[in-house]
């Protein structure tokens, strides 16, 4: 039997081992198939795109693969070594790292320290390693680099307007991407590129041209014996690709050292020096050269790469007519959207009134940013995104054409598991902080400066409200501060350098948003600290004591209007407005006493708590240095009201306990009602100096007194005298519309 059991046990072990082995084999096979599938997708994404034959030049251009913006080929920023948390969604991961940057940004702005939000947000995004697969042509990492280039963090563009500074930033981003592309091209064919140990920019361009022009024969910079077949002249290729890659000094060097570009060199030097704002004379010279080349046409046998000369002169010229004709006559001029946009961004000009007359006389109407925007906006978003397969292409194109607000609005509506709406919020924060949102409204949009700021404020505020609803007041405050700053023009609003309208808008929005936080549970503790009003977060956003006090008084008033009396009392106490706090307590105590008179269960406990709160306020006010002589007089008035209401509450307690004689005695002793039977029957307006809160309790108090007298024998006529005084009091106040049952009760007693 033991032998049989051991055999069965061995068989079970073998079967279990076999099952485990087969599961491992299946798992390995599945992982291999998954890797092969992803690699095939990656290869497909880098293949040249087919033309769609749509009307217009843009239909021929495609986007370069996104490998240039992979984490391994970033702009040199050190990616944080923070890996995504395994069980977190992409949205949670983005929200977490971005929130840390927002905190740092607010802290820096509050202390007037330098901070680069685009750089910080980009580094935070890269720390998540979300774009490592590189399956899309445009990734959010690439978008963040573009944002960084647009706002000009780490670089300065002198002698240009804010709008042209954005254009230069977009162009520099495209040049950065092209530099990655030529390096990848060189690395893909190192033997043909023959870069060797050279690391200079011009050497990289020439190595790139060896690969690009490999079928054209010996290139001029590689020719050793000029007596043989003439080498290929690459002057214009070198200049163009130096500019396209951002190597401006090298482009100028090639132009100055070449006989072929001798006349072009001074034009190029002026274009580089002025950031494209060349004189009308220079533009006219370049335009005439363009006309000459376009008239010559593309002759048979003429090398196609000579077209680079035409492109370069068109860039210097910046004339709308020449550019439109060039693209019409040479529809295959650009292979990618990036090349197309770089050319357009390089050629466009600002139409200044100073040179408008000269330009009009010469017929050189400049190609402007609005022309580019109008052209790009002819195509539907689905055209750019390939019906949603590459969703970031459209906002990327919008950002490149300085249409930042439409790009943000588009991203904010992309609510999916990729979390692009989260990115939109933080792009809004970045652009708003730099104060450039009004420049990025886009063509055809009739929006003012404040309209653009209000759009950003709305996006940021709605995102912050999510934290508010979830009880995370700390982060809600951080985002609300940025929403208000967006209304005020960004960074300038923190230091009071915005215009008067922007400062007013920021102040109004900040008060509104801070009040929302203040009204939440824990809001007072967060904004004001454990005591007083200068130990919490509020002092970061309102540094002036008087401003904080005024804001808190307004907030307390709003709390009262909303029926949040406890918060109103607490805020008034923090501000030192003890009389106003007592007034609110007395109002609530009056309501509680009336509720007790109508036999509501929670009336007494609520009244006791309010009396305790009032006593605490009086104790605090007694030792407070903030209370003035006038405040102390107001506090004394409210203290009298508190004691009157406390006395009425005591009478109700006695009556409910069956101590009717004691209840009557205490009622008669109340000086505010003049019910003492020993006093004269002179008519007195008892309500003239009586608080409305006490007045509200009088009808119920009189009914209680009359009910008590029903249960007490009148041995000496005292009760009859009290009844008479009550009847006179009621008769003299018929206009107050007291309850009908009180009138009936008085009539019965008489």
From TrEMBL:
Superkingdom of the organism of origin: Eukaryota
Pfam families xrefs: Nic96
GO molecular function, one term: structural constituent of nuclear pore
Location(s) in or outside the cell: Nucleus envelope; Nucleus, Nuclear pore complex
GO cellular component, as recorded: nuclear pore
Residues forming coiled coils: none
Gene Ontology biological process: poly(A)+ mRNA export from nucleus; protein import into nucleus
Annotated InterPro entries: Nucleoporin_int_Nup93/Nic96
Keywords of the record: Membrane, mRNA transport, Nuclear pore complex, Nucleus, Protein transport, Translocation, Transport
Family per similarity comment: Belongs to the nucleoporin interacting component (NIC) family.
PANTHER family: NUCLEAR PORE COMPLEX PROTEIN NUP93, NUCLEAR PORE COMPLEX PROTEIN NUP93 NUCLEOPORIN NUP93 DEAD EYE PROTEIN
Protein name: Nuclear pore protein
Lineage: Eukaryota, Viridiplantae, Streptophyta, Embryophyta, Tracheophyta
